[in-house]
Each structure stands twice: as structure tokens, then as C-alpha cells.
Specification:
Number of helices: 9
Strand content: 25-35%
Pfam family, one: Pyr_redox_2
Keywords: Flavoprotein, Oxidoreductase
Bound molecules: flavin-adenine dinucleotide
Structural class: alpha/beta
Distance between the termini: 24 Å
Subunit structure: Homodimer.
GO molecular function, one term: oxidoreductase activity
Number of domains: 2
Number of strands: 17
CATH architecture of the largest domain: 3-Layer(bba) Sandwich
Organism: Paenibacillus tianmuensis
């Protein structure tokens, strides 16, 4: 069978694309390995009607809704390769020899985060340490927090965080990523700035207790944010040689079409930032409409 559209990635972007294509009576295969990036967190925030939902519950509801449409299939497997064959169809190869052929392909594989290597980080990530203030700062408001980043984006995030707490320590982790002017401005707002490398995050049951610096000093904190670098979670955009944005995201025309005819990208994999469930779902929806329009134009002119 040749599907109208294959979607690699069944997160909010891929699932909303599948929902719209299913409603448009298109044959769709969602290829997903069920490794959502936000699985580490207890609650997802900021999506109206779903504020505070667990990522697992969000997925459960989404799959239940999407699979009500009889032309949508969920193939739970890892895509390992993609190519365009001589007939112009996309072929997605999965583990265990699965081969899916489709007229159109949506990449909705999301991001991978690369965090600075700091002892204790992963035992607290998604519980006491997070990467996005809009997602998780409300729950830690007015608490003593730390912000760690090697990137110049630390300046912007530090200012934003003042809306949630005035007790903030900003740490560049051994880098000189803040100018003297920026340091002075942050300090004038009561923010403590340090350039010391962080040796470890120390906590218990997911709750941060203190930050240990390279010189052995310890700073009591109850939570915080660490800013990662973002990279593609899957190599398919690169493999199909589509144009990229400066930040590494897959360049689209704003409604999902990439530089490769018939290939679309939706959600975090496309724009990288801001990384939000509601943005990804909306992007999936827009992309599905572009796919449906392009299929219609091909079939009926
Ligand atoms: C700790 C944490 C907390 C967050 N909290 C919030 C929050 O509170 N509110 C909010 O709006 N956003 C939050 N986010 C961001 C949000 O999770 C993302 O913006 C959103 O999930 C992006 O959706 P997506 O569909 O683009 O990608 P993803 O949700 O990352 O989905 C990508 C899917 O592709 C699949 N996949 C990847 N590669 C392959 C492959 N080779 N084969 C098959 N399948 C593959 C993955 O298994 C996954 O299911 C949080 C993120 C993290 C990490």
C-alpha cells in the first residue's frame, strides 16, 4: 500500500497533523518510537484545556482521538532511514524490516537537548530542574532558584525569571557569556551573578537542595533552570538534504513545506524554539492542510 502521507514522530505535532489528515480522509501512517522528550516531567503546562496534564495522559487522549479515524494507522517502531525512490515516493525504513511507502512525508521527530555535563543533573531534571520558565516557573515561584547556562541567552532568561522570583543566582558555568554591562544590570535588579563552574546539583527525591561549585562552596537552592543546546532528534532532514535554519531547525515556508518537494516538517524539528506543545500541535495542523492541498492539486489540478 502507498499511503497518502507518512508521519515520522507521534508527538503533538505529528498527532495533530494525523488528526487533520484523518479528517480529510487521507491514508496516514504515524511512525513513532514512543520516546517523547517531555516524558521526564510530571506535568505539562500552557495548553488550554490540558494545563497540568501528564505527558502520558496527553498522548493517551491524542492517540485515542486520532485512531478514531479509520484511515489513520499507528506503527510503533523506530524509523532508521528515509529515501525518495525512482517513482517519487518516500520510503521509510523501520526497525524489524518495516517499509512504509508514501506520497508525502512529514518529519515531526522533535529535538534532543544537550545539557552541560554536571553531576546530579539527570536525577533532578523534570522534577527540580527544568529548561523552560514558561513551562515550569509558576510551580517554583518566590523560591530561591538558580539559572545555569553557557549561552548568551542566559541574559534574556535571567530577566524573564524575575517575574517568578527575586531570589535568583545566575551562573555562566565557567564562561564569560555576560558583558560587564549585562552583569551590572542584573545585579542592579538584585540578581547574583557568578561565573564559577558548577560541579554538581545535590538533591533528594527529585528536589534540588544545593548547588556545589568547582571550588567546593555550596549554595542552597530549591530549584532552577538549565538551558540546553538543541539538536535534531533524528537525522532525516539532513539525510534528505533539506535546507536548515541557522539554529539547526528544518527550514519551511511557514506551513510545513521544506526545500524538498513532498517533504514537510512540523513542530520542534522545524523551528526549534520556542519549544511548546501548543505551538507544535498548531504547526502539525497547518502542515496537514498544506499536505492535503498539495495532494489535491496533484490529483485534480
Ligand atoms: C522536561 C520538559 C518539560 C516540558 N514542559 C512543557 C510544558 O509544560 N508545556 C509545553 O508547552 N511544552 C513543554 N515542553 C516542550 C514540549 O514537550 C515540546 O515542545 C513538544 O513536545 C514538541 O512536540 P513535537 O511533536 O514537535 O516533538 P516531540 O514531542 O519531541 O515528539 C517527537 C516524537 O518523535 C518520535 N521520534 C523521534 N525520532 C524518531 C524515530 N527515528 N522513529 C520514530 N519516532 C521518532 C519521538 O518518540 C516522539 O514521540 C517540555 C519539554 C521538556 C523536555
Amino acid at each position: 500500500m502507498i499511503y497518502d502521507c507518512a508521519i515520522i514522530g507521534g508527538g503533538p505535532a505529528g498527532l495533530n497533523a494525523a488528526l487533520m489528515l484523518g479528517r480529510a480522509r487521507r491514508n496516514v501512517a504515524i511512525i513513532d518510537n514512543n520516546k517523547p522528550r517531555n516524558a521526564v516531567t510530571h506535568e505539562s503546562h500552557g495548553f488550554i484545556t490540558r494545563d497540568g496534564v501528564t505527558p502520558a495522559e496527553f498522548r493517551r487522549i491524542a492517540y485515542e482521538e486520532v485512531l478514531r479515524y479509520p484511515s489513520v494507522e499507528h506503527l510503533q517502531t523506530e524509523a532508521v532511514d528515509v529515501r525518495k525512490n525512482e517513482s517519487g515516493f518516500f520510503e521509510v525504513l523501520g526497525t524489524s524490516g518495516l517499509l512504509v511507502q508514501a506520497r508525502k512525508l512529514i518529519l515531526a521527530t522533535g529535538l534532543k537537548e544537550i545539557f552541560p555535563e554536571i553531576d546530579g543533573f539527570y536525577s533532578l531534571y523534570g522534577k527540580g530542574l527544568f529548561n523552560c520558565p514558561y513551562c515550569d516557573a509558576w510551580e517554583m515561584q518566590d523560591q530561591p532558584l538558580v539559572l545555569v547556562s553557557e549561552s548568551p541567552a542566559i541574559f534574556h532568561t535571567a530577566k524573564i525569571l524575575l517575574n517568578w522570583t527575586k531570589d535568583l543566582v545566575v551562573c555562566t558555568h565557567g564562561r564569560s557569556s555576560l558583558s560587564d554591562e549585562q552583569k551590572t544590570l542584573l545585579q542592579s535588579r538584585g540578581i547574583v551573578v557568578t561565573e564559577q563552574p558548577v560541579a554538581a546539583f545535590v538533591g533528594h527525591n527529585g528536589k534540588l537542595e544545593h548547588v556545589r561549585f568547582a571550588d567546593g562552596t555550596e549554595l542552597p537552592r530549591t530549584g532552577g533552570f538549565v538551558l540546553p543546546k538543541f539538536v535534531q532528534a533524528a537525522p532525516f532532514g539532513e539525510r534528505l538534504d533539506c535546507e536548515r535554519l541557522d539554529n539547526g531547525g528544518i527550514k519551511t515556508d511557514g506551513v510545513g513545506r521544506t526545500s524538498i518537494p513532498g517533504l514537510y516538517a512540523a513542530g520542534d524539528t522545524s523551528y526549534f524554539n520556542p519549544s511548546q506543545v501548543v505551538f507544535a500541535a498548531a504547526d502539525g495542523s497547518k502542515t496537514a492542510m498544506a499536505v492535503n492541498l498539495d495532494l489535491t492539486e496533484e490529483d485534480y489540478g
